[in-house]
Fold these 2 entries.
Entry 1:
Amino acid sequence: MKVNVLDYGVGNLGSVRNALRFLGVDASVTSDARLIDVADLLVVPGQGAAGDAMAALKSHGLVALLQDYIRSGRPYLGICLGYQLLFDITEEDGGTEGLGIFSGQVKRFGSREVKVPQMGWNQLDVVNDPLGLATGLGRPLFGYFANSYYVTPEDPTIVFTQTDYGTRFASAIQTPTVLGCQFHPEKSGDVGLHIIKEFLNRHAH
């Protein structure tokens, strides 16, 4: 199984690659469109500003390629910004258009309610898990977060986990071929590694 990690200049590549290696996956880190297009599974991490991330994707000629890759039904794991950019638009940077794979917006936490950014561990409440990615894990589950923005999907059926931080938000989504995590599974200990491993297993061939 060829797993490629997209390097578009704003990703937390080291910890993601280390987590995959721990799971026995020798992933390639690349920004080469040709390698991305032939991946069996694509991992898109990301940290920093959405505007910079979309600008980087555009400068590498990767926007249409990513849209085509995901819409073709090939497996995609998006982490943090790699999750947020799946949606229509984010409030960040004065309003930044995303990839538009799913309908929904990315909003900023209200600074009066909670400390922004959210940094550290928070609970993951599993609400919908058709792939069984959290099967075998005890409860409660916790993930590690580092975010100022959160996703509001229009389709509630894709929400995998929810988390409370001043507001209740979709901390992960799941479809048959897409796993998007606002928390960092590569930094979330056994829980995060389990979820990544199960997603990889569902698409191993």
Note: The two ends are 6 Å apart (CA to CA).
Entry 2:
Amino acid sequence: MRQVTATVISNAEVMPQVHLLWLEAPGMAAAARPGQFVMARCGTGHDPLLRRPLSVHRVDGGQRLALLVGVAGRGTGWLSYRRKGDVVDLLGPLGNGFSIRTAARSLLLVAGGIGVAPLVFLAEEALRSGRAVSLVVGARSASGLYPRSLLPSGASVVEVTEDGSEGLRGMAVDHIDGCVGRAEQVFACGPATMYRSMAGKECLTGEPVQISLETMMGCGLGACYGCATRTRTGMRMVCHDGPVFELDDVIW
């Protein structure tokens, strides 16, 4: 973990109210692993007081990292207005990331909405190691889908929208049954409702499924207990013990 002043390289709105922010952050980018996150200071003073947690979305050459910023309030709004040459104070990389089993050669990644953020990094790493990647990406409508042109070219992509305006109709979880049988490991990131649906799916019973929990965080270091969640081994801190957990370990 380190604190760095990262310099903005580019900022583009890739979906409505979702910005792809590339930053120059040597050292931090080299140390980051898929599933980890950073805590970003969203201002130049102490308002907002708390940093905002953001998944490491992509890494380029160990020098640059990308964050996918969904505008949800003043803090993320401030980040969305950063332009080339601006600086952002980052703390990280934090948390425990995804763990790919050595023997797993075929992976299924399931993304709900902005949950695609950490999975793009994971997909790129998996493809570089010679693994096959199937990526199911869900959104409410076509405008909310992560641009296919920005997804790793070697991944097999299935797009799903709730209103059927693009790809298959329904929720991302509705369309994983046929993919699970071909996968040796499953990874997911999305809202709690998606995980509850996954926990009840027969096709995932006994399957190794790692999920990244999305939750509010105060400190990002496990000190404030603001992100405590119930697991079968007791209360755990999402920031310190996660954000990646086994699906079956979390009490839904």
Note: The CA atoms of residues 77 and 96 lie 27 Å apart.
